[in-house]
Amino acid sequence: MKTPLEQAAQWFMRLQQSPDDDSLQARFERWIWQDPAHATAYREVCHAWDAFDSDQALGRLASAATRASTNQAQRRRTLKHLSIGAVSILAVGGLAWQRQRPDWHGQWQTAQAAPLLGQALPDGSVFDLGPDASLQASFRPDLRSAELPQGALILAAAADGQRPWRLRSRNVDIQLQDGRIAIDRWRPEQIRISLEHGQATATLNEPRWLGLGRIERGQWPLRAGQVLDIQAGQARYLDIPAADAYAWRVGVLVFSNASLEEIAAQLSRYAALPVRAPLGNGTSPRQPRIAASVRLTDIPQFLASLPTLGNIRVRSLPDHIELLPV
Questions:
Q1: Domain 251-325 top-level CATH class
Q2: Minimal CA–CA distance to 18: which of 178, 207, 277?
Q3: Topology at the third CATH level for domain 104-237
Q4: What residue ranges carry the coiled-coil annotation (predicted)?
């Protein structure tokens, strides 16, 4: 098993070979905060960069880097790279490593029907995390970043002209300088972004071959009051109020021209049983669309009333509830 110092040196080599790989950067940040020994090893490596003209420090680090790469498939190439340019790599790498180092990191996980409200961050930003969601956030000298693999997030970003926010949810990156934004990854292939105020830009990315970086597939600006929906690689602005996405924070779900699938996904976060819509993805013009608002405490009554709002059948099964178009 590699020592923390050997792992630190290996991370350095990876970052140097793929400096634009954001997914690699995210894994690096997670590794840093997995174990206090990782951060200690990182500091030792940083000290070595600062004193790279010291033969002893350079030799120690180069030795660790060599040992760390012995089990890699590209062993010969890496060793050749080290033997030719070790000193210049380590000198430049010290600066790159300092830029990559997170100053602060936090992570949160919420359970079903248990949102996290009013969570303050060290920079003065405040976020609300919806139920059944996960979030990681980190700060670096030049960037504030957060990753939302699933669930809903409301972020009130504190103004910081030197450090924008980069919010990532799977294949979508959102840049926000300041303002208030709601992001809802309500299913793996679909995300909705609603901007209350401020300015933001959403970028759709696609992984490169073998996961080596990402290719930008499109970019969409958002102004105050706009709602952007990205699904299966396609983006479109929706003519619905941005305020809908913030209502859950005060105990209300608001649906504007919503498909049965969207209604089911939102209700499932709070209902006693999962709600599903196996035929209600809204792609057919005959699929019902619903406009309604419901208090979280009134979900059973709302489900019972759905047939009166459209051509919908509600079927209760032992382990879940189904919404079906009639």
A1: alpha beta
A2: 207
A3: Jelly Rolls (2.60.120)
A4: none
